[in-house]
Design brief:
Length: 236
C-alpha cells in the first residue's frame, strides 16, 4: 500500500468574501506542481458561498463535475434549460461532454451553503452533455457505505469514467471495509466530519488521503464521522 496525506491546513485557500474556498488540488490562483491531481481526480474544492451569492454562468467541456451539498441549498441553472435546487443529502453530476454552460448560487438569502465540488477527467470525450441528480438521505446511509456515483449502478448517478464515489456515515467505533471495484484504481478519501482511521492512518476533519496498491481499505470511526471515498483510475 502507498499513501499520500493531505492535511486540511495544507490545502490552498481563497477567500473572496462571497466565496470561501479550500482547494485540495491546484485550482485557479492556487498552484502546487506536486498537487495537480490524484489519477483522474482533478479538483476537490470545499466551498462556502454567502447568502444570495454564487458563480455566474460559465462554460465547461470534457469534465465530470460532481456537487455534494454539506449544508444549505444550491441552485443550479444550465444551458439545457435546467433549473434545480440541490439540497443536503443530494448528489448532482454534470457530464460536461462536448460543452455546457451553467451557474450555481446559494438559494438562500439568509444562510451560507457549503458544498464539495469535484472534477473527474472523463473516460470518453465529447459525449452529449448530461445532468443527473439523486437524493441519498443521511438516515438511510447510517453505519454503512453507500455508492452515490458510479458507471454501473442504477441507484447512483452515472459518471463517464471508471470511477465510484462512496459515502460512509459511521457512528463512533463502527468498522467497515471498502473494496475497490477495479484493482488498478486508487482511492482518495476525504473526511467530511469527525475522525477516522483508514488502514491504520488516522485522519481528522477535512483531511485527505490518497491510497494506491491496496485492494481494500479498513475503516474505523474514531468519532462519529462522515467520509467520502473517490475511486478513480490512476492512468487515463
Amino acid at each position: 500500500m502507498k499513501t499520500i496525506l493531505h492535511k486540511a491546513d495544507s490545502r490552498g485557500h481563497a477567500n473572496h468574501g462571497w466565496l470561501n474556498s479550500h482547494h485540495t488540488f491546484s485550482f485557479a490562483g492556487y498552484y502546487d506542481p506536486s498537487r495537480m491531481h490524484f489519477g483522474a481526480l482533478r479538483v476537490l474544492n470545499d466551498d462556502t458561498v454567502a447568502p444570495g451569492m454564487g458563480f455566474g454562468k460559465h462554460p465547461h467541456d470534457n469534465m465530470e463535475i460532481v456537487s455534494i451539498p454539506l449544508s444549505g441549498n444550491l441552485e443550479h441553472q444550465d444551458t439545457t434549460g435546467r433549473n434545480e435546487i440541490i439540497m443536503q443529502g443530494d448528489v448532482q453530476i454534470m457530464n460536461a461532454g462536448s460543452g455546457i454552460a451553467h451557474s450555481e448560487k446559494n438559494a438562500s438569502r439568509t444562510e451560507d451553503v457549503k458544498f464539495l465540488q469535484i472534477w473527474v477527467m472523463p473516460k470518453e470525450k465529447n459525449i452529449p452533455p448530461r445532468y443527473e441528480q439523486k437524493s441519498f438521505p443521511l438516515n438511510e446511509r447510517k453505519n454503512k457505505l453507500t455508492t452515490v456515483v458510479a458507471p454501473d449502478d442504477a441507484q447512483a448517478v452515472w459518471i463517464n469514467q471508471n470511477a465510484w464515489f462512496t459515502l460512509g456515515a459511521l457512528d463512533k467505533e463502527t468498522t467497515a471495509q471498502y473494496q475497490l471495484h477495479q484493482q488498478q484504481n486508487g482511492v482518495y478519501a476525504f473526511v467530511i466530519r469527525g475522525n477516522v482511521s483508514l488502514n491504520g492512518v488516522e485522519l481528522s476533519e477535512r483531511d485527505g488521503l490518497g491510497i494506491t496498491e491496496s485492494s481494500t481499505i479498513d475503516i474505523t470511526a474514531v468519532s462519529n464521522t462522515e467520509v467520502l471515498f473517490i475511486e478513480v483510475p490512476m492512468t487515463f
